[in-house]
Predict the 3D structure of the following.
Amino acid sequence: MGKINHYESPGLSDFSYWYLELMRITEIRASQPPTPGSPADWRTQLGQIVVEVKTDDGLVGLGVGGGGVAGIHLVETVLRDLLVGRDASDVEALHEEMCRHTSFYGRKGLVVMAISGVDLALWDLRGKAANLPVARLLNPNVDLDLELPTYSTVFDDEDAESAFNAGHEAIKLHVERFGDQPDPAEIANLVQRTRERLGPDASVMIDAFARWNIDTSLRVAEAIAPYDVAWLEEPIQPDDLDGYAILSEQSPVPIAGGEHEYLADGFKTLIDRQLHAVLQPDINWCGGLTTLIDIYNMAQAANIRVIPHRGCEPYALAAIAALDSRPLAESGRKWFNCLSGFPEIRDGRIQLSNRFGFGVELRSDGG
Ligand SMILES: [Mg+2]
């Protein structure tokens, strides 16, 4: 991704040229506004954070990252000290510096979640400075009116049918509640009932939320394979790469994962080893849009599909619409009712905002 401000320099001194390009960062803040109604799991316990980056020309970039109070501390000390006074338009260089500066203690997890929020705020600024939606920065030909297909995550076959009838063309069954050592037949029954309700055309997926071991994963995969399951998501712990190598070789159902992986280097390993048929990076955790672009480039070159985690939220949605020829967006959860500008799903489809940047704003009433 090149710089957006392509000023012509003839007639200007070098100094004037750079002066025109400069969008100096004056302030960086992070907060965790109240989000009543958020689901009660680790992502909200630890907390999604909102990052604001202000510049000397009065623009404010808004990003969402993770890491809770610890993430806020990192943004408001280490990252703020690194970035205040710098040119906000040089997003890729700032991303690289943030990663290098924190690499001794933060190559994965919480630190990268916080960096993601800053990166997205910088991309938001880049869009606002260019008077363009971020999707258009990524792809000048993107169709902002396109209605993108979505999938819905549900817990039983009855809800699967409701979601399908509401227009979602794909349905994911969350099966974490069956525990660490589920009876494969029980899960197969659920998948079979779902398939019978939805008919042959719907895509059906299942998500194990990293609860199983390799043996259980293979036994479940074999039990559900007759029902044409599009993917088995995160069956084992994200760091068990050797385990994923076995599953990718032996599972009759394609393996998905990556929502708990970080930075381009992390994804490069997954891609080089061909551990997943579908990668699901989370743009608000994995390193932001700068990282997600790298992931798309690497995965597309290796013929691996990218279906970002929580794809219906505006940050991931911009990338899905701009970079993917087979877009599919995951329907979101209400983590960010402190923000406005999230597009609604209608009849199972979702449309990009045509507002500048990511089109997101902090609600003045606090959500
Ligand atoms: Mg998942």
